[in-house]
Amino acid sequence: MKRPATLSQFQKRYHGQQEARRGLIGTSNEALSKSKRAIFALHRDDPKAAADLLVQAEKLFTKAERSFKKFPALRYEGAYKAALEEYAEALLFEQYLRTGKLGKIHERAMDPYVYLAGLTDTTGEMVRYAVRQVTLGNMKAVGEVYDAVEMVVEYLLDMDLTGYLRTKFDQAKKNLRRLEGMTYDLAIRDK
To answer: Which is the most buried residue in 22, 46, 77, 157, by most CB within 10 A?
Structure first.
């Protein structure tokens, strides 16, 4: 029996999608790495390096997203979503350091699932920032970070998150407890 043309077309499309998927995963991993390195630069108090890395990540996302026109399902690829979460985290952390607030970030990271995952992870970066500020003698920063993380946890409490986001929320609550402990230790030390 001769193979129907439809099967050959599906085979060609499948192979094309798999090739595009491999490219998307590689590019997404690069974007995730740039976002992670931007966070590290922010912790080193190097906002210029962080901004440069975030621009590089944006270019990588633009490159990766080209495949969505031909293969829309790739938008839901795990590596791409993970890279977006790290990117959201980097943008939120940078925003907090620059303005003291958390709010709107680049549109590509404003999907509720991505944004909320990035927001919960940002609380961990804020705790690391607070620890560094204590070592630099800036005790006031701990209270400011505590207020911001407490606001995030209270906000997330109202959302009744489930699944993956619930796990992320539990991590944010642990970050708040770490800050509570740090605040308590600083209060005792000052007495």
So the answer is: 77
Q: How far is CA 140 from CA 11, 143, 185, in A?
A: 62, 6, 14
Domain boundary among 33, 57, 80: 80
Q: Evaluate whether residue 14 is within a structural domain.
A: yes
**Measured CA distances, 31 to 51, 80, 113, 141 (Å):** 13, 9, 18, 30
Give the domain range for residue 134.
111-191
Reported pTM: 0.91
For the chain (191 residues), the mean pLDDT of every run of 10, in chain order, is 81 86 94 98 97 97 92 93 97 97 95 96 97 91 95 94 94 95 83 65
> Domain total for the chain?
2
